[in-house]
Amino acid sequence: MANPVLSTRGLFAPAPPQYVGPAQGLDGGVPNEYQYGAQPGYGAPPWQTPTQPGYATPPWQTPVQTTETMTLEDVLQKTAISLGALFLVAAAAYMFLPDIILIPAMVVGGLCAFIAPFIVARRRVASPAANIFYAATEGILIGAVSKIFEYYYPGIIVQAVLATMIAAGVVLVAYRFGGFRVSSRASKLVRTGMIAFISVALVNLVLSFFNVNLGLFPAPGQPVTWLAWGFALIGVCLAVFSLVEDFQFIEAGIAAGAPRDKGWVAAFGLSVTMVWLYINLLRILSYIRR
What we know:
By secondary structure, the chain is an all-alpha fold. It has helices spanning 72-96, 102-123, 128-152, 156-177, 184-208, 226-256, 262-289, and strands spanning 18-19, 63-64. It has one domain (72-289). Helix content is 61%, strand content 1%. Helix 1 crosses helix 3 (128-152). The protein starts with 17 loop residues before the first strand and ends with a helix.
């Protein structure tokens, strides 16, 4: 899927309406005019004649929305918290991980970070703890990868971070003010491309354990093929379209009145896409530096 978290069907369902309690009356809560059945000279109570003109719906039957709903400001705040935690873990991993365990840490962190979004998508729930767990696993991956690339290409991490921020800002401006949207047909193509890209990446990872190199994801210091350039550019394009889809999903959830706690799910999904964008921009910058 374009984003396994935010593209989950029915994720941002509206918050269920809550019902107010009965108004005060003679019977410990029921209003006077609704306590009795039909009396001589009086009409039947409204719950017995719901279609009779002249009667209002009893107040205890009126749904009132009391659940807090998701807002854009809340989503942005939670996303900042998630990305901030990820940045701190990545910085700690970058500074303190010994060089001898960088590759194992990158593989373990990458697998955990790969599985976590599908767990959140299945449960349709994300909490601060889930976001912190993802930030920890993804932060280890980002810290290890960044340290390896920085060793070969000094200064590339600052370039990659700035490129990611600029790319995300341009996409947001194009979405907000330029009407940039992903159609349903394009969305299907993006999802198919994402599944194919991830499948190839997993196959390449398994083959690398047996010293088989397909040339799709050359490590730092290895020669870059045109195939590697193509996969890197496809990865950036998929990340950009996925980010636009994330904005669409979140906007639809806000319009539908999704509960406020879904803001953590939205923040989780945006963090996944931002990391994907950073990794692919880091690869392209390394190819340019070579």
